[in-house]
Write a structure and sequence with these properties.
single chain, about 550 residues, alpha/beta, six-stranded parallel beta sheet, about 15% strand
């Protein structure tokens, strides 16, 4: 009889596959795992305040590292709360594994306390959902979970863990190797055809996005695009995939797209889409690029065959991981610089005009706030945000220079910014982390500020307070002018709230006060919060509420 429990075997397997952090909220359904972690070296349990925040932290960990972020929650309410982060991971193509403590096996199918069939619950939200009923098979299930999360289009996996299985006996079985990320390579004939299509193009445009990226992929792609004068745009909230200061960078494609960039996409004769799905946000409601057949020639490169041709029918579909494709692309050489150079310059000039700061009404100018952050912090600073109109200023006016420095949900989930900032701060305590949040967005996961205080994490949260759900108010005013319903917020004193949690809090109501407040936040050894009061008429960099009503 083995003295090993299922929980101990589970923890061994997590360590085998290289996990070093578990984000979670404790629950009685997996107390055996928490006990096994007590004796584990190099595997830390980050105690969070709500399962939605924990799952978003795990997702952000997966985004930054490329390794599956691990989240552990209890059954029923714990799992339903965590589903918010699973949804982010699925739509953002992020590797993640959610472990859920489950009722004991002898209570199954009786609607026991907090019992849910997770295969049905998460069936459309995850790449794979399963339950480990036999403790001896834990290594098999864990290996498959890691492999599934990172293969093809990365994404989340959900595993339910019956309570009695975790506390019961288990056998180690044969030794397994840590997971590895499989690579798919472009076929030589596909690369030859792509070369011909690219050589024939007068106005090609590369759009990058999706999962499976790295800094080496970024560096190789930048070298190719700079050498060949090929303009490149970033899909929605993937702006850090290319150094925004390079001449080849043309801006971001998605919500709030520059009208000139939208026109350039329309004028293009060849779109090369690398890693992006071309979803609703990137295509601005499928209007900037219209399905099912684009007017331009389309080359679509994606690591999972099922995605190619699912919405847009490409002229050339290439199944390949990002690293293998970019390496193959680096070997290509063209003599097109003289043809593409004016086209690249046109797109670059338009981007620089669009990203030039704009003034809006009120005593605090958000463009100045973003510019100050950019000037004061190094290139490796991580910027996080959730959803809301406040994010427009960061997306439009902040210049990203290194891959892995933008943590933002392409699925548009509110509340994401603070958990993502916490995950980033746990990975590197020296690297600066700034969370941009709206008042409504921050309140979704504000309790996680206590998590940041508990672990002494150095990060800065900037809460843009306009007293409303800004994005929804914008759409409300467009459709039902002056008929305000459900979009007004009465907020707490956020700076006092941060202080009460044990952090640094300060309130800014005038433009000239931000620099001092930011310096104070930088000097504080722990989490800081700067509350910015902006004119509640301001809704975008160029529009007010009254403008929408005209």
């Amino acid at each position: 009889m083995s003295n090993l429990t299922g929980a101990q075997l589970l923890v061994e397997q997590l360590s085998l596959h290289g996990s070093d952090k578990i984000f979670g909220v404790p629950g009685e359904s997996y107390l055996a795992v928490l006990d096994a972690l007590y004796d584990a070296d190099g595997l830390d349990f980050i105690t969070c305040r709500q399962e939605g925040g924990a799952a978003m932290m795990a997702e952000a960990y997966g985004k930054q590292t490329g390794k599956p972020g691990i989240c552990m929650v209890t059954r029923g309410p714990g799992a339903t709360n965590a589903s918010a982060g699973v949804h982010v991971a699925f739509q953002d193509s992020t590797p993640m594994i959610l472990f859920i403590g489950q009722v004991a096996r002898d209570m199954m199918d009786r609607e026991a306390f907090q019992e849910i069939d997770y295969r049905r619950m998460f069936g459309q939200m995850a790449k794979w959902v399963a339950q480990i009923d036999d403790a001896d098979r834990i290594p098999e299930y864990i290996a498959r979970a890691y492999q599934t999360a990172v293969s093809g289009r990365p994404g989340p996996v959900v595993l339910a863990l019956p309570e009695d299985m975790l506390s019961g006996p288990a056998k180690r079985g044969p030794d397994l190797a840590p997971y590895c990320v499989p690579q798919s390579y472009p076929a030589p004939q596909d690369m030859d055809r792509m070369k011909d299509m690219l050589a024939a193009a007068q106005k090609p445009l590369l759009i990058v996005g999706g999962g499976g990226w790295s800094r080496s992929v970024q560096a190789d792609l930048e070298a190719f695009c700079q050498r060949e004068k090929l303009p490149v745009a970033a899909s929605f909230r993937c702006q850090d995939y290319i150094n925004n200061d390079l001449a080849c960078y043309a801006g971001h494609v998605g919500i709030g797209i520059d009208a000139n960039l939208a026109k350039s996409i329309d004028d293009s004769d060849l779109l090369i889409v690398l890693g992006a799905r071309l979803g609703e946000m990137t295509t601005n409601g499928y209007e900037v690029i219209q399905p099912p057949k684009t007017k331009q020639k389309l080359i679509h490169i994606y690591p999972q065959a099922e995605e190619l041709g699912r919405v847009y029918q490409p002229d050339l579909a290439i199944v390949a991981t990002m690293s293998s494709f970019v390496k193959a692309l680096s070997d290509c050489a063209f003599d097109q610089q003289s043809i593409w150079s004016p086209w690249q310059s046109e797109l670059r000039v338009n981007y620089e005009k669009f990203s030039t700061p704009l003034a809006h009404r009120g005593d605090v100018q958000m463009c100045d706030v973003v510019a100050h952050i950019r000037q004061q912090l190094p290139d490796n600073t991580t910027i996080t945000n959730g959803a809301g109109n406040y994010a427009i200023w960061t997306h439009r006016f902040f210049a990203y220079r290194e891959y892995g420095n933008q943590l933002a949900p392409t699925c548009g989930s509110m509340g994401y910014g603070l958990p993502a900032a916490i995950a980033a701060a746990t990975l590197d305590p020296v690297k600066p982390v700034v969370c941009m949040a709206g008042d409504g967005c921050f309140m979704m996961t504000c309790q996680e500020f206590a998590t940041a205080v508990q672990y002494g994490l150095k990060l800065i949260v900037i809460v843009v307070n306009n007293g409303k759900y800004g994005t929804i108010r914008m759409h409300q005013e467009k459709r039902f002018p002056a008929r305000i319903s459900g979009t007004t917020l009465q907020n707490p004193d956020f700076s006092a709230m941060a202080t009460a949690f044990g952090g640094f809090g300060v309130r800014v109501e005038k433009n000239e006060d931000f620099a001092t407040a930011f310096e104070g936040a930088q000097n504080f050894e722990g989490p800081s919060l700067i509350e910015i009061i902006i004119d509640n008429q301001v809704i975008t960099p160029s529009q007010t509420i009254d403008d929408l009503r005209c």
